[in-house]
């Protein structure tokens, strides 16, 4: 099966640094339709875990949608499409930046985009979207002290519970950065799975703390999008 990774569902054309990470809503809707036409099946987080544990009869046609950062456009633009198309998903929140902006990109000269606040996350959860953690501050987890690593992982879970959400089972490594210490900390925090941005397909029995994902970018349109979904990482080396 495959896990797709999205960021912003909005038109960021002309935006420095993050231009490629914005998929316009109409393009996103078309991508959902392409996936369905290809005979692939959207699955939820529970089915994904069963697949990892080799407890599921799910074929290799499964697709899990994930969204990093939890921008406001996830609620405003993506959720109506997900509900219309009956697609489950997992959304990863930066828990100490709720209601703020992507300040981790500011030093790179990127525009500041609004992030969902606590109420926005609750609306997603009530709509059936699984809420996971993307750390507290979007830190580079391989570069921080053991104490900070603990707070970025375990603290983020407490943050989400404090606003009335269930304790997350899923984690997405900021920037896709992780090592043995980071994986150990995620495991010890009680998380069931953690996601990278290494492009590949997911196999039954996959290491649950090194789950590959296929990042979907603005330039992934038409046949390139379908080839990327079906055949990553080969397409990414073109």
Main sheet overview: 6 strands, parallel
Find the count of extended strands (DSSP E, 2+ residues).
8
**CATH structural class:** Alpha Beta
Runs with pLDDT <50, length 5+? none
CATH superfamily: Glycoside hydrolase/deacetylase
CATH architecture: Alpha-Beta Barrel
Q: How many helices?
A: 7
Provide the succession of SSEs. Answer: EHEHEHEHEHEHEEH
Give the end-to-end Cα distance, rounded to a whole number of Å. Answer: 21 Å
CATH topology: TIM Barrel
Percent helix range: 25-40%
How does the helix and strand content classify structurally?
Answer: alpha/beta
Mean pLDDT: 95
In total, how many domains does the architecture comprise? 1
Strand fraction: 5-15%
